[in-house]
Design a protein that fits this description.
With about 650 residues, the protein is of the alpha/beta class. It contains 20 helices and 30 strands. About 35% of the residues lie in helices and about 25% in strands. Bound molecules: 5'-O-[(S)-ethoxy(hydroxy)phosphoryl]adenosine.
């Protein structure tokens, strides 16, 4: 396969090349794609100055990403399976779509979107479960140049509304319902509630998935099957500029308002294909399965775009790892003879807790490469994955990256880079990580620990935050001059391998999902009895981090007090979704604040970790007694 590194020596050579001559390096890779018009310049950029970040890859190049998935591959792959869909309920039939079939469906749905007035540059919000129509809808948007904004179907109506409003979406695509294990989620009803606040939306397209009766608003709501009836699948791809927006994906940051991370067409295409091929070392005929949801970036880059650009067979699964039982993942591996399996540490830890017997009863001999993403993997989970799932013969790629980076940044290349448990190892070609101290001084050499930054653009990086370029600059480029700030802390060991330690900002990584503490606080504060709250992360055996909320409430009766925890949880579920529900809630009479009124989260974090012995300097606190009270209360909390 072109552009695939096949040995460690070649990796080091390519890495050197990519740093010495980034334009030449990425230009050569992009040559293997199909461009309507070639670029004039590989890269034009600045991380500083008033329009920063300014990042333009493949300047004036024209292309359509779907032509690179379909037309470019069609001759070879028309009858090859592109997507295998495994339903939530194993008793239901699976769906297999060849590249030819998927292409026809994408073109037909693209025409259908045009029919209702969706044009190049319009935003389309997609709120679908993990069904093939999700991939079809996103690719149809890309085909006509509409910008997709996929919202994870576990978010609440209120969170969905915020995202639809921010993107000013013209159309929302959903289904009547979605399934997760034995739960049915009424997606259309959630969309209806959200849309009460979203004047920009002209139509809701509804895919019939479970067939239950739903409320239907004439003229506004359109069934997917009615919309495509009689629509042709002849379609010519819209010609896009390399820097035209491909999609927006909202992610959590340090403030309450989610950020719309913007990715553009040319660079994202080149980067996701290159990283997919090299990290996973995918070969023709392999069956690749990433268990993420397409509502998160992992699904965008490594279920849909990266694999399909490569011409891979990619598995999509609607259900959950533990239903109908804890052997479900391994049933699926066995059923489709999966060769590449990519999941999150949190899923691995949850399965470790269920016992080895769920794994050992299955034939997993097809597996060749294992991957993890989303959060640091602890050594115990890594070893279990390696020994019990991989039987000691599959390399593990621990892939570090972010919504903002578009694709994998630091990771072993499967079977090529020697691995060490819990280390993401080495940067991919083209990626220049640096560690800095809090003053921004670069920590050179090995065996150092600091704040992880990236010093040179790469094609898959974010270009802006939707509608607010200044926020992008402030968040990622203002802390240290000329550097992209990742928000993670990392160690570089004696050999130059990277270990990602975790977030250094106010973001908690819960089960591999990013949750901003401010977002959760804003939601908790919506409860009428809540005066103030402070949220921190704490170590959680399965989730990696759990959410710990310290809450000040108004005076309450005993009955109110007995219900308040559940009510707060319900409030968070209503405003964000169940993923952000606090694991622990402690009602307190005050919060540790400095004289200037700033909450000292460091102290709350320590207490949450159960380590109140060394709280550091508390002399600047307005009222040190509050801390003692919280420590006492925390003991009760931990015991329960
Ligand atoms: C964390 C997910 C350790 C990290 C692709 C990052 C990881 C955040 C790893 C991004 C890893 C991701 N080891 N930590 N292999 N991969 N992270 O935007 O804190 O949902 O900043 O993107 O997840 O999460 P996001």
């Amino acid at each position: 396969m072109v552009n695939k590194i096949t040995s460690l020596a070649e990796y080091f050579r390519k890495y050197q090349e990519s740093v010495a001559d980034p334009d030449g390096f990425w230009g050569n890779i992009a040559e293997t794609h199909f461009w309507q018009k070639k670029w004039d310049q590989v890269l034009d950029w600045s991380f500083e100055g008033k329009d920063a970040p300014r990042v333009n890859w493949f300047v004036n190049g024209k292309l359509n990403i779907t032509e690179n998935i379909f037309e470019r591959n069609m001759f070879m792959r028309k009858d090859q399976v592109a997507i295998i869909w495994e339903p939530n309920d194993p008793k239901d039939p699976e769906v297999k779509l060849t590249y030819g079939e998927l292409f026809d469906k994408v073109k037909q749905f693209a025409n259908a979107l045009k029919k209702i007035g969706v044009e190049k540059g319009d935003r389309v919000a997609i709120y679908l479960p993990m069904i093939p129509e999700l991939a079809i809808a996103m690719l149809a948007c890309a085909r006509i140049g509409a910008i997709h904004s996929i919202v994870f179907a576990g978010f609440s109506a209120s969170a969905l509304a915020d995202r639809v409003i921010d993107a000013k979406a013209k159309v929302v695509i959903t289904s009547d319902a979605g399934f997760r294990g034995n739960k049915t989620i009424p997606l259309k009803a959630i969309v209806d509630e959200a849309l009460e606040k979203c004047p920009s939306v002209e139509h809701t397209i509804v895919y019939k998935h479970n067939g239950d009766d739903i409320k239907f608003k004439d003229n506004h709501d359109i069934w997917w099957h009615d919309l495509i009836k009689g629509v042709s699948s002849e379609n010519t791809a819209e010609v896009m500029d390399a820097e035209d927006m491909l999609f927006i994906l909202y992610t959590s940051g340090s403030t309450g308002k989610p950020k719309g991370v913007v990715h553009t067409t040319g660079g994202y295409m080149v980067y996701t294909e290159y990283t997919f091929k090299n990290v996973f070392q995918y070969n023709d005929g392999d069956i690749y399965w990433c268990t993420a949801d397409i509502g998160w970036v992992t699904g965008h880059s490594y279920i849909v775009y990266g694999p399909l650009l490569t011409g891979a067979t990619s598995v999509m699964f609607e259900g959950v790892p533990t239903w109908p039982d804890a052997g479900r993942f391994w049933d699926i591996v066995d059923k489709y003879k999966i060769t590449h399996f990519y999941t999150a540490p949190t899923a691995i830890r949850a399965l470790v807790a269920q016992g080895d017997q769920w794994v050992t009863g299955h034939d997993l001999s097809s597996l060749r490469v294992l991957g993890t993403v989303g959060e640091p993997i602890n050594e115990e989970a890594w070893r279990w994955y390696h020994d019990v799932v991989g039987k000691g013969k599959c390399p593990i790629v621990d892939t570090w990256w972010q919504t903002e980076t578009g694709g994998i940044m630091i990771s072993p290349l499967a079977g090529i880079t020697p691995t060490k448990p819990s280390l993401a190892t080495l940067p991919l070609p083209g990626i220049q990580p640096v560690l800095v101290d809090p003053e921004g001084n670069e920590l050179k050499g090995n065996a150092v620990e600091g704040i992880l930054c990236i010093k040179y653009p790469w094609p898959g990086m974010l270009r802006t935050t939707y509608g607010d370029h200044q926020r992008c600059f402030q968040t990622y480029f203002s802390a240290f001059r000329g550097l992209y700030l990742t928000g993670d802390g990392a160690k570089r060991d004696e050999e130059g391998y990277y270990r990602i330690i975790g977030r250094i900002d106010d973001v908690i990584n819960v089960s591999g999902h990013r949750i901003g503490t401010a977002e959760v606080e804003d939601a908790i504060n919506q409860h009428p009895k809540v005066v103030e709250s402070a949220v921190v992360g704490y170590p959680h055996e399965i989730k990696g981090s759990g959410i710990y909320a310290y809450v000040i409430c108004e005076e309450m009766s005993d009955t109110d007090l007995a219900n308040i925890e559940n009510e707060i949880k319900a409030t968070v579920t209503k405003f964000i979704g169940p993923i952000a529900k606090p694991d622990k809630i402690q009602i307190v009479s005050g919060l540790p604040k400095t004289r200037s009124g700033k909450i000292m989260r460091r102290i709350l974090r320590k207490i949450g970790e159960g380590d109140a012995t060394n709280l550091g300097d508390t002399s600047t606190l307005l009222d040190p007694h509050v801390v003692e009270e919280i420590i006492e209360g925390a003991k009760v909390e931990v015991k329960r």
